[in-house]
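Collaborator request, handled under Task 6.
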Amino acid sequence: MSVLLIGASGLAREVLAAGAPGVVGILDDDPATHGTEYGGVPVLGGVGEAALRREHLLVCIGSGRARRDVVRRLAAAGVGPARYTTFVAADARVGSTSTVRAGSILLDGATVTADARLGRHVVVMPGCTITHDDVLGDFATLAAGVSLGGGVRIGEAAYLGMNAAVRPGIVVGPGATIGMAAAVIRDVPAGQTWAGVPARRLSARAASYPPPIPARVLEPHA
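Structure tokens returned to the collaborator:
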């Protein structure tokens, strides 16, 4: 299987360094990257060219909202869900009763235990722990070292910073941002930014994030 990475990014280099198989090129909208190599792989052209090619795709963009924007843009150009592959690094572990949907990336040292469900285009950076019955919505991002207790729900396009920890049973709403090393012991509403130990909401002035994404019910994936 031949694969194109979307985005000449640090995440793309991490995917390549972790041994992603079959990568034949990268697509990026920055014209300055075209014709160069990134992580030893040629940048072949803009993101829109994915609609004209046949390779499988893996979106390597760190921001979940930006990943979602790219996937929606490509869908409008006729790129369907079947075009996306999934990458689980050899050093990552996914329990036999857990599921990881198309487009997701799990890097070295990530651990997914029992009956967890990861949605589409989820990014799990090195050293994360996802435990029993956790549900990660589409386009969620876990930075390095995040730990989730059992039964946690992470909403669509939420971002959890490095070494954040989430107590069992907590819900982090769609589009929420959790700061580095935060200890989340209460539910976090959609679109809010929380940080600290224990984590609390940052004021609008202190938090730098896009406008909240409307909340939706986070249902388990079929």
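The cover message to the collaborator said: "The longest strand covers residues 23-27. Residues 34 and 135 are 38 Å apart (CA to CA). Please let us know whether this matches your experimental observations."
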